[in-house]
Amino acid sequence: MPYLTAPEALESLLPGEPRYRVDQVREWLYRHPVLTAGEMTNLPRELRESLAPRLWPMRVEAEHVGDGGKTVKWLFRTPDGAAVEAVLMGYPRRTTLCISSQAGCAMRCTFCATGQFGFERHLQAGEIVAQVAYANAHLRAHPMEGAPPRVGNVVFMGMGEPLANYDNVREAIRRIIEVMGMSARAVTVSTVGITPGIDRLAREPWPVTLALSLHAADDHLREQLVPQNRRYPIDDLLAAARRFGDSHGRRVSLEWTLMADVNDGADQARALAAIALELGAHVNIIPMNPNPLSPQRRPTAERTRRFVDEVIRHGATATLRDTRGTDIDAACGQLRVRAATEGAPMGSPRNKVPAQDRAESPSNP
Ligand code: SAH
Questions:
Q1: Please, what are the domains in the chain?
Q2: 204 belongs to the catalytic site
Q3: Engineering a disulfide at 3: which of 30, 53, 126, 236 sits with its beta carbon 3.0 to 4.6 angstroms away?
Q4: Residue 215 Cα: closest atom of ligand 1
């Protein structure tokens, strides 16, 4: 399984091969990934044949194409049966890949489909890197019109909480930057807010971007959306984000999933703007992608616009994020929805959201 082996240790997979062969294989795997070993044209046939069955540490169970070809979602399956999902989004001048750091997730955010299934297992570094390599190989074989032929941005916004799988995520980031050659700023680690993990990440040598999934400007509301907030309340989180921002001037952004009558009122907008200004952080507003397991809903377009305007009016910079992949259940927080509603063999929802968890914002009765 080449991607599970650290690139520096690839020779263990190629016993008796000369050094330059190992370098050639590493080049194919990490710099010019291909979908089949047969395409590794400068390797002898026997070596290609022996590599072929070991190329990917997981098989592609499904590929869904949406948004007229601009969004592709993959469901990968590891040999032990864990589901891994990644979503590739092509834009006019960039491509962004959303990857998973865990199979399932233990954070239980009430508006997220993945959170309702619970935790399956951590992904190994190689299983994380293989998602990037696979997307690069796919882009080479099937260029997206107008988009670059390589993954330009990697965001840890698929399944899982990256900072809860720290060592594997760290090693994956190292391979993505140092071996694949991506820039650290093109890598975004999105977290629910695990403060010791944020502090560890700040001490790493790579200036990656940190995205904090805030969603609420006060602890009372945030606890209802992000149970993890009881352990790491907002003040602690913001202090860690500030320390992260101070280390080598790394950027922090705030994610805000906008939910109708929950966190889309003027009071929250004002408080969010104040937090963003104090942190010097950019705000990304994501209209909630509804899923059958969560009680929250998406606000109207007008209400969404008003919220964004209100944040900006109070001096913060904010972007309304487009929601890609809704037609193929590939949008944020929607991964695994199909399995949830059809009872497919990807696990079953662990808990129904109790009525008292239906968050009501005091400012929006
Ligand atoms: N655990 C990490 C990364 C995975 S979630 C985190 O929480 O940041 C990636 C982003 O998608 C987070 O900002 C999360 O809050 C958001 N998200 C989850 N469910 C969503 C939904 N139903 N609609 C819109 N965004 C959602």
A1: 1-55 (1.10.150), 58-357 (3.20.20.70)
A2: no
A3: 126
A4: 15
